[in-house]
Amino acid sequence: MSKLRDYAVLFGIAGAVVALDQWTKYLVQTKLAFGEYWSPFTWLTPFARILHSTNTGAAFGLFPAASAIITVVAIVVSIGIIVYFPRVPRQQLALRIALALQLAGALGNLISRLIDGTVTDFISIGRFAVFNVADSSISIGTAILIAVMWLEERRSPEPAQDPAEPAPSLSKGSDPDMG
Q: Cα-Cα-Cα-Cα dihedral of 21, 145, 118, 107, to 10°?
């Protein structure tokens, strides 16, 4: 029963993000011609706009010729997260959210890749690469994961000295300041 509850959390979060990702991609595909953009305010257009673009590579347009490899990696990563997730203690909420977001991003772009053969990107900020909700989900999940690992490392106590090693001693004359 606890695994079922774990999977309900994982698929609940991931499902909501995938639904948002697919819905926003659909809106862009049906409302904007390829290459067309929309912005609610003309003064905002140089900085932020919705731009209908596609991508055959990884997040943010990386590795455009590696679509087949990226598809396999997305499947492997998704399976890995699904298998590993129940092992993450419930108290580690941030880690659970990070994994759910990464799963959502992988699945969101995988679905697009399998259905359309390409991924629709549309969030265009300044000169940064155009991206989508799934890309954002992967990035946010990764940032949370890094933060959790960093905080956990900082919380862990300093390694204890090996009892086989003698403790450093300060005998008279061994410290130049003590003379």
A: -60
